[in-house]
Amino acid sequence: MPAQHGPRRARIAFSDSAAKQLDAITSEAELHALDRALVVISVDPDIGEPLPGNSTGPQLRQYVDDVERVRLLYWVTALKTVVVVAFIEV
Asked: Global pTM?
């Protein structure tokens, strides 16, 4: 019998500015908070709310995790890759 797998997760990529933020994280708690938020959006990229903007660029979304007190700004590509633009503590 073949193994049952859950839904496929979206691939996560980081913009240059988000990668710099990631490199600057030194706290285990911040890393845990970011990891938790990334898992949530990788499972459901549409969970974040769309940010107002124009239609010329990608639709930016924001995901806020009130428990871990973080906010991710990201957009989703046509192939369901999540591109994280910024990681912000709230």
From this structure: 0.81
